[in-house]
């Protein structure tokens, strides 16, 4: 992990974003859901460096009251990007009210990020946009994302960077420390990510990059979470019958 060259990777990521838009939406805007956490802050900042602030749109999506909404506002103010505040409370409560059963805790926690992703696409399709995925490698490794919620998007600048690596890039981008070093939280259950996971990101990042870990119990927990959540990172399984498809040559 000490060999990580933040400046080199940051510059390569910025160029990767430029190349993506050149090939998959020349002149389009990057649409980024802004939570007030480090990941969305860093992705937005990378997009600004890659495309210019006039081609990045931030979307703040509180579910009623959001305790750290000021952090999300700080980010869009720091970057100087156009942004919208779209409160998803009515949509969320409307779905919950219509459920003909008592929703589970998991249902309640995962519905907001799925509504937020639908909202991002509503903004994107009305603003010639491409939706940024803001996940990182550490979270993806243990399935700490919502399928068809924050796990998706049109392009993902940071899904192969660990939490520690993200922080290094965030500091290099000149983002406020209160955004880069803020304790990661899903904003759904009132606990930090590390509280929910049962181990630190420092231990997880070290294990991902070096294979080294001090506590066998934590290794077992990480391996288990990785194994049962791999499906989130894969394309949807599809039955493929033995029926020929014509080869069409361009």
From TrEMBL:
Membrane-crossing residue ranges in chain numbering: none
Organism name: Ruminococcus difficilis
NCBIfam families named among the record's database cross-references: nadE (TIGR00552)
Similarity comment: Belongs to the NAD synthetase family.
Alphabetized SUPFAM superfamilies for the sequence: Adenine nucleotide alpha hydrolases-like
Reaction(s) catalysed (UniProt annotation): deamido-NAD(+) + NH4(+) + ATP = AMP + diphosphate + NAD(+) + H(+)
Cellular component annotations (GO), alphabetically ordered: cytoplasm
Keywords of the record: ATP-binding, Ligase, NAD, Nucleotide-binding
Segments forming domain NAD/GMP synthase: 11-240
Entry's Gene Ontology BP terms: NAD+ biosynthetic process
Full protein name: NH(3)-dependent NAD(+) synthetase
An MF annotation (GO) of this entry: NAD+ synthase activity
Signal peptide (residue range): none
E.C. numbers: 6.3.1.5
Pathway participation: Cofactor biosynthesis; NAD(+) biosynthesis
